[in-house]
Design a protein that fits this description.
This is DUF8039 domain-containing protein. The chain contains 6 helices and 7 strands. It is α+β, with helices and mostly antiparallel strands. It folds into 2 domains: 95 residues, no CATH class; 101 residues, no CATH class. The strands form 3 sheets. It has a 3-stranded antiparallel sheet. Strands 1-2 form a two-stranded antiparallel ribbon. A two-stranded antiparallel ribbon has the order 5-6. The N and C termini lie far apart (41 Å).
Length: 221
C-alpha cells in the first residue's frame, strides 16, 4: 500500500486515510472499500460505512485535540464500539500481543500505571452508571410506563445540573467522592462532537489526593 500511496501522491491525488494510524488503514483496506476522488472511504455495506464515517470524525477531533487516543483506545476501537480482545490486535494480526501491537505505548505497561488507568476507567463507568440511574429515576417519576431510550439519559437534560464523580474502592462495591462539578447539556464542544460515553462537565472542586489524575479530553479552560 505504501507504493500505491506514493504513486497517488506523485499524481497529485489525495491519499485515502492519510491521517489514520496504520492498523486502522489496514482494517479498512482489508474489507476492500472504494475511494472517492477526494480520498474518502466508501463501503456498500451500511455498517462498515458507519464505522468509516465515525473514524473520520474521530480523526477530526484528534486533530483539534478534543480526542486523545490511549493505546488500544484509538479511532478504530471507538468507531467499532468494541474494546480489543487480549492476545490480538485488530488491523495488525490475530496472534500479535498488545505489547507488540502497540509498541509506541510500551511505557504504559508498567503495572502501577496500568492499574491507575484501570481505576480511572472504572471511575468513568461508575459515574456514568450513577448518572443513568439518577436521571432514569427522575424521568420515570409520575410515569407508569417509559419506553426504553437508545440515548444516554443525560442527553435529555436541558439545563446545567450539579454532578459528582465517584470511583470504586476495593472489592466491596464501596465508592468515594473524587470531584464535583456542573453538567452542561449538549453533545458538542468547540464545534466538535463529544465521543460516546462522555459529557460536558465543568469541574469545580477536586479532592486534593486526586489532583494529578489526567482528563481524557483536557481543554484550555
Amino acid at each position: 500500500m505504501a507504493k500505491q500511496d506514493e504513486e497517488m501522491e506523485k499524481a497529485g491525488k489525495p491519499i485515502p486515510m492519510k491521517n489514520h494510524n496504520p492498523r486502522s488503514r489496514n482494517w479498512v483496506r482489508a474489507r476492500t472499500p472504494a475511494f472517492t476522488s477526494e480520498g474518502d472511504v466508501v463501503f456498500k455495506d451500511q455498517k462498515l460505512q458507519e464505522v468509516a464515517v465515525k473514524m473520520k470524525n474521530i480523526i477530526t477531533q484528534q486533530q483539534a485535540w478534543t480526542f486523545v487516543p490511549d493505546r488500544d483506545w484509538d479511532e478504530l476501537t471507538y468507531a467499532l464500539g468494541k474494546p480489543e480482545h487480549s492476545g490480538r490486535v485488530r488491523g495488525v494480526s490475530s496472534k500479535t500481543s498488545w505489547k507488540d501491537g502497540f509498541k509506541q505505548d510500551a511505557h504504559t505497561y508498567k503495572k502501577r500505571d496500568r492499574y491507575r488507568e484501570e481505576i480511572d476507567s472504572q471511575a468513568r463507568a461508575v459515574a456514568r452508571d450513577e448518572c443513568n440511574i439518577y436521571w432514569s429515576q427522575k424521568m420515570m417519576h409520575g410515569a407508569a410506563v417509559l419506553e426504553p431510550e437508545l440515548s444516554y439519559p443525560f442527553d435529555d437534560v436541558t439545563e446545567d445540573t450539579p454532578c459528582k464523580l465517584l470511583i470504586p474502592v476495593g472489592r466491596a462495591g464501596k465508592k468515594i467522592l473524587v470531584a464535583t462539578g456542573r453538567f452542561i447539556p449538549g453533545r458538542r464542544f468547540h464545534c466538535q462532537d463529544i465521543p460516546d460515553d462522555y459529557a460536558k462537565v465543568e469541574v469545580r472542586t477536586v479532592i486534593e489526593a486526586y489532583w494529578m489524575h489526567a482528563l481524557d479530553f483536557p481543554t484550555t479552560e
